[in-house]
Design goal:
It contains 9 helices and 14 strands. The chain is of the alpha+beta class. The chain folds into 3 domains: 60-188, Beta-Lactamase (2-Layer Sandwich); 246-324, no CATH class; 330-473, Histidine kinase-like ATPase, C-terminal domain (Heat Shock Protein 90).
């Protein structure tokens, strides 16, 4: 029993006139998108720079304000002491009933000055001002303490605090001012900024070196994977066995699975080549012996043995195509759609056979469409050829979350239980009165097994003939 042809065939593609030359090492080298380590370093350097600039600016403003606040507090203290020590004399002028405590007020050009001004009165300056006076804007009144910077003295920027008050026994609004040279304040600020600059520069360099060390150490497992792959290519080992971190281990497991898959494919290719060579050896020997002996039935012998060789070649080509398509990736195909297309094709060959198709219209299996068409084509055509005139195909005939079970039933005589195992052998046919090569079920079994499926035979309860149970993995 077997199909003598597949329902869908395709002509072999013409070979290219100029086959491509072997690829060079440069062509085999995959293009890259840059260094992963360099990316990590650029990102780390960018964040370090941003954080250091933001942190340095915030710290600079904070420390500068603290230094200025401390400086202003000292000036405010002196101003409060001046106001507390000031009284109005009999002549209506202001004077201090007690001397101010800071000796610098008495030293000319000492950098610390005070001055009292009132409308209609002469300015009352400290001795440290000597022949200079503080220029204050008398067009406004500062009832609260007012701080500001001034450059009225050449090469001596000042920090001035002033306040306007009305002293007892006086109707004049007096403006008290204390000024101090900014040299010490500016020196402290520049010193703080210098310390911050060097500190943050050293901190940034240290962080960058730590990021570089982290990048080098963190990417070390990837270098070990590369070395392991190089070892596979140069030494012939077939697995990556080095212990690696959890984040890299899935990659290594996938790599080992890919290597196992490639090894399995290579072994299958060697097996197919050996089987094909062994299968062709006997027919070639028979033809050679007949030709050497100049046998009278040489033409019949050549035709018979050539048919045998073609049968073997077709079988191994079908397996090779299935293996090659499986290597491309996991496909998804709707079973009902494929079975419907095969049914229409077989109906043209057997117009007197009644076909019924039922089951889950949404079932999908992980197999290439061409291979599913070939499997169903063999099974449905066999049922039409060897059955009694009725073929019933059921999609998803049995509940299974991981596999789709397809039944192909006919109303023929069926196959005895003791013959069901050997019917899958290549070239095995129980009914030799009908044309065929005996490869149909063998191809179905081999292609189904390549995709992780299976085929087994039984007896149809509804039609009484043969029941072919095809199991294929579900898609997704």
């Amino acid at each position: 029993m077997g199909a003598n042809r597949s329902i869908q065939t395709s002509a072999p593609a013409n070979p290219p006139a100029n086959p491509p030359a072997d690829k060079t090492d440069e062509q085999l080298t995959a293009s890259h998108t840059g260094s992963l380590s360099r990316r990590m370093m650029v990102i780390a350097a960018g964040w370090i720079l941003i954080l250091l600039l933001a942190g340095g600016f915030a710290l600079d403003r904070t420390l500068t304000r603290l230094v200025e606040q401390n400086f202003d507090d000292q000036l405010d203290y002196m101003l409060s002491a001046m106001i507390a020590s000031a009284e109005i004399g009999p002549d209506g002028e202001v004077y201090f009933y007690r001397p101010l405590g800071d000796q610098r007020f008495l030293e000319p050009n000492s950098g610390l000055y005070w001055q009292i001004s009132g409308k209609g009165h002469d300015d009352f300056p400290s001795r440290s001002l000597w022949d200079r006076t503080l220029k204050m804007d008398r067009g406004h009144l500062d009832t609260q303490t007012h701080f500001y910077n001034s450059t009225q003295f050449p090469r001596e920027p000042l920090r001035i605090v002033e306040r306007s008050v009305v002293l007892p026994d006086s109707k004049t609004r007096w403006t008290f001012a204390v000024a101090s040279a900014r040299d010490e304040l500016d020196y402290q600020i520049s010193r703080i900024r210098s310390i911050l600059l060097w500190s943050f520069a050293i901190l940034g360099l240290g962080l960058f070196l730590m990021a570089a060390l982290q990048s080098w150490y963190g990417l070390r497992p990837l270098r070990r994977v590369r070395e392991a792959i190089q070892s596979i290519r140069t030494t012939g080992s077939n697995r990556v066995t080095d212990p690696l971190p959890l984040e890299v281990q899935p990659l290594v497991e996938e790599l080992n699975m890919l290597l196992a898959h490639s090894e399995k494919q290579a072994e299958e290719a060697r097996t197919h080549a050996g089987n094909l060579a062994h299968a062709l050896k006997t027919p070639l020997t028979v033809i050679n012996n007949a030709a050497t002996a100049k046998a009278a039935d040489l033409p019949d012998t050549v035709i018979r043995e050539a048919t045998t060789m073609r049968r073997h070649v077709d079988h191994h080509l079908a397996r090779a195509r299935a293996v090659g398509r499986r290597a491309i990736g996991h496909a998804q195909v709707a079973v009902y759609e494929s079975a419907e297309a095969v049914r229409r094709a077989v109906e043209r060959l057997y117009p007197n056979v009644r076909f019924d198709l039922d089951g889950n219209r949404n079932a999908k299996v992980a197999i290439e469409r061409q291979d599913l068409d070939e499997i169903l084509g063999n099974l449905i055509e066999n049922a039409a050829k060897y059955g009694g005139g009725s073929v019933f195909v059921t999609v998803d005939a049995e509940p299974d979350p991981h596999h789709c079970v397809i039944w192909v039933e006919d109303d023929g005589t069926g196959i005895p239980a003791n013959k069901r195992a050997e019917i899958f052998d290549r070239g095995m046919r129980l009914d030799t009165g009908k044309p065929g090569t005996g490869l149909g079920l063998a191809i179905v079994r081999d292609v189904a097994e390549i995709y992780g499926g299976a085929v087994d035979l039984g007896e149809s309860e509804d039609l009484g003939g043969l029941l072919v149970r095809l199991t294929l993995p579900r898609a997704g």
